[in-house]
Amino acid sequence: xxxxxxxxxxxxxxxxxxxxxxxxxxxxxxxxxxxxxxxxxxxxxxxxxxxxxxxxxxxxxxxxxxxxxxxxxxxxxxxxxxxxxxxxxxxxxxxxxxxxxxxxxxxxxxxxxxxxxxxxxxxxxxxxxxxxxxxxxxxxxxxxxxxxxxxxxxxxxxxxxxxxxxxxxxxxxxxxxxxxxxxxxxxxxxxxxxxxxxxxxxxxxxxxxxxxxxxxxxxxxxxxxxxxxxxxxxxxxxxxxxxxxxxxxxxxxxxxxxxxxxxxxx
Length: 266
Hints:
Elements: E1 4-8, E2 14-18, E3 23-30, H1 33-44, E4 47-50, E5 59-63, E6 66-73, E7 83-89, H2 93-102, E8 106-114, E9 117-123, E10 129-135, E11 150-157, H3 160-171, E12 174-179, E13 182-190, E14 193-200, E15 212-218, H4 222-231, E16 235-243, E17 246-252, E18 258-264
Parallel strand pairs: 3-6, 7-10, 11-14, 15-18
Antiparallel strand pairs: 1-2, 3-7, 4-5, 5-6, 8-9, 9-10, 11-15, 12-13, 13-14, 16-17, 17-18
């Protein structure tokens, strides 16, 4: 899920940091964090470790001891959706936040100091929410391809061209069309490595959702996972189907946070 570089500390030691522009974490901001932990713990087999006391009800989701995601309390005074939010790495969160503003985006939270780093939460010109993060890459983070881990993110938006320019300007993402005949689908890359997808759907975008980032989680069996979601109080939004990338379905948890389940083609 992440890539890391080494940066020198004040005493000459080096600490691994995420490559600027790469996906470095996914967080769920929920209203009822205990209920969300029960849901995802049962669905994915996650266990949870509370963050420091000053982070409130924030907790790291662990899979076999590895950090795979975070779940925190949605601030009641913030007009933010209950949603999975991807965080992109930055070498300087304050400078990146300023670039977001100058590029037509909005910074809704921060920049502020957080556990072992600094963060901000912003939205692109279309309104899709994302995070900005600078911090040490944790040695236990970054497992991928295992059921219960985030495996991909995709921006679902109306117009691809304008938002691609935004992310290129803010994070240095380089776009590459996935299908020459479909300019609405591109992959964003850093140093040649895929970071995220962008899917422009035009007027097919649901009016009640607006542009949004969609997180994909690996599932051993997508159809079984969908049944489990509904048994736990979630909803099926798009039925399981085969795609060039694997079998995939889109669901929502009991609070309405949307995510996709995928069995990736190897």
